[in-house]
Every structure is written in structure tokens, then in C-alpha cells.
Amino acid sequence: MYCNQCEQTFRNSACVNSPGTCGKDADVQSLQETLLYGLKGMAAYAHHARRLGHHDETVSAFIEEALFVTMTNVNFDPEALLDYCLRCGEMNLRVMELLDAAHVETFGAPAPSRVREGTAAGPGILVTGHDLLDLWELLCQVEGTAIRVYTHGEMLPAHMYPKLRDHPNLAGHYGGAWQDQKREFAAFPGPVLATTNCVLIPPEQYRDRLYTIRATGVPNARRLPDGDYSALITAALTCPPCPEAPAGESTIGFHRQVLLDQAPTLVEAVRSGAISHFFVIGGCDGAEKGRNYFTDYARATPPDSFILTLGCGKYRIRDHDYGEHLGLPRLLDMGQCNDAYGAIAVAAALAEACDCGINDLPLTLVVSWFEQKAVAVLLSLLHLGVRGITLGPNPPAFITPGVFAILQQRYDLRLTGQDPAGDLARALAAA
């Protein structure tokens, strides 16, 4: 345990033994931190939704109450704190619903789309992060110029929305997940705009070309306090142009509504045995070792199954040809990490149509976690009572063995192992 939130800590530094001076033990500290990280992740989604005109006062009130619960000497009850964590999951589900509605209302109904990857000859701007409104405002300001705008990382799903996809200056996608940005941004000749988290402190090679917006900021980059992109546009026109360097195409855009429109066909295929299983493989990616587990797991899935993916975890599995099944790509890219709401909505609809619970579906969730938004999504899944989630590649350091044991007992929460093919075989055998 490490707790330094009050003056009475051990030697006025921090309580590192359990229980601490106030009587709080390590499991209570763990649950408070889980709640805090879940709130942070939920706040990121809520911020995006609010910028698009969607918010819920119930969510705001819960954030205030939940922050109060984590204060010094206010709650030492593990069961009460676990309940708050699950309520955080409930509120996060609502926030993801708001953001989903905001995206559709603002940018149009998503549809499957072929996206050009690489660069075309001419001046370019690369946009990374998550905020689709920032991307739209930039596109509006470069309209009429020769500047081509490219998405990076979790901005890839922008191409499934018609208002964004059809803009003449949106040229395609460049690069992969956030942890590759130092190499990819150094190779991109134009300026780079970072709209949200998952931006790294830039090395010298491109720090004079890195721009951030509003809350996002790193040392030595150029921070834009508002939506005026004139400095960024000037940089794009003065930097060396992008080369003609195509890197193929990819298919994205299997938003929840696209799949819900296919629900009757999918349900009948499940009932007839034509679909053996659904796998949700995605989440928040990271750079540490062990994440090849998700790559190996996806490639071992049977040819009569479907893989739903979302978040930057998709970059671990998207460079493989999984083929098609029933006229659809086996790998169905649903969007950003917040589009976990869509995966949940599809699972709920299939369960209702099959007259069963989500846990009775031939469905396995294999989720990579990296930071606070992934914590919020996990809490949403636990709030819904989803069992048997495989999480990895490493357990969260703020989850104590005692708290993890509770989650294992109540939700059959599992960690990734050393044998992805074996884990997949066991999942299929248990279905």
C-alpha cells in the first residue's frame, strides 16, 4: 500500500504498511484507486460528449459523490467501495452511450469504409488522439487548400462517419498505435496535431512540428489554446511535402448499428451453428512485452467465428488476413475504445434475440488494458455482470491480490496466460 493523502501518514510521508495510520487497509486503498481511475477514464469520454453538446447531470452528480467517497476517513467499507466502482461502470456506460449518440448526430450514420493508408504527394497534416470534433474543425479550416489531412492511431474510425469521410481534405490514414509515434512522427514530414491523451514527449526530430490542442500538452511542443489552426496550417505549407507512398487499404466501420442491422442473420447463423463463436479482442494497447498474446490469440480463432475489435488494441491484430465468413470480414473493426458501448449493445441485442443472458452467448472477451479509460470500460462490463473476461497482459498494479480474488470469485475475471491457443481452446470448450 502507498497512501499519502493526509497529514497523519507515517513519518508525514506515506503509509506503506497495511493498515495505515487511519486504519485503512490495502484493499480499501485499492478500491479507492480503482474508483479514481475509472472516474478519470469516464471524464475523458464525458468531455468529448460535452463538447458535442451531450451531457447528463446524473453523471456529473455521481462524479462529485464518488470523489467525495475517496476522501480521507470517509469510507472504510470494501463492499460499499466495490459498489461505487460498479456504479462508476454504470455511469460510464451512460457516458459512452452519450458519446456514441453525439458522434452519429454530428458526423452521420457510420458505414463500412475502405481507407487508404500511407501518404499522397503534397503537403500534409497528421492528426492523432481521439477527438473527432478537433479533426472536423481542422478540416473546415484547411478546406480549399492543397493540404491533405491524415488520421493516426485511434483517429482511424473517423473514416466511418460520412461527414468526415466525404470531406475533400481527409486523405487517409497513416501509422499505427500510439506507442509507435516516435518513429512514425519522425518519418512524417509535415506537422502533427495531438488532440487527446496518448501523446509522448517528443524527441528533437519532430518537436518543432508537434502541436497540441486545449488540455493536451507536452514540453517543447506548440500548444494551441483553442480551435485556431492557422499556425498549424502555415507549418503544413512550409514543411517538406509528403511523398507518394501508398501502404494499401483497410476496411473499418462496423459500428454497432451496422451489426444490429445484421442481427437477424447473425442470430439465425448462431442457432444453426454457422457461427461458432464471437470474440471481442481489443482495448488499450501498450508497448510492454506480452502483448503478442492478443496477436496469437486472434490468429488462432476458428474460420467460422467473428472477431470484434476496437480501441488501439486493434493494431495488434489488424495486419493479418482473417478472411470472410457469411459475406462479412471475420475481423470487424467497431471503432474507438469508447465504442465498447457498441460491442455491449450488439451483445445485449443478440442475447435478447436468443432469449438468453450475455454470459450464455458464444462470446469471449479478451481485453488489453493500459490506462484509465480501459478501467472505466472494465467497470462497465462488471456492472453488467459479464463473466469470464480475460484481461492482460499484466494485472493492474493498483488491484491488490485481495481485491482481484473477489473479482475472480464473483466475475471469473482472468489474466492472460502464456498459451493463447490453449486459452482459446478452453474458451471454445466451455461455450
Write up what this structure looks like.
With 431 residues, the chain is an alpha/beta fold. It has three domains: 91 residues, Substrate Binding Domain Of Dnak, Chain:A, Domain 2, CATH 1.20.1270.20; 136 residues, Rossmann fold (3-Layer(aba) Sandwich); 178 residues, Rossmann fold, CATH 3.40.50.2030. The protein is globular and about 65 Å long. Its EC number is 1.7.99.1.
- Number of helices in the DSSP assignment: 14
**What oligomeric state is this?**
single chain
Here the CATH topology of the largest domain equals Rossmann fold
The proportion of strand residues reads: 15-25%
- Give the overall shape, derived from the CA principal axes: globular
Helix content: 25-40%
From the alpha carbons, calculate the radius of gyration and give it in angstroms: 22 Å
Mean pLDDT: 95
CATH architecture of the largest domain: 3-Layer(aba) Sandwich
Q: Tell me the structural class.
A: alpha/beta
Low-pLDDT stretches are: none
Main sheet summary: 6 strands, parallel
* Neighbour order of strands in the largest sheet: 4-3-2-5-6-7
Total strand count, please? 16
Distance between the termini: 38 Å
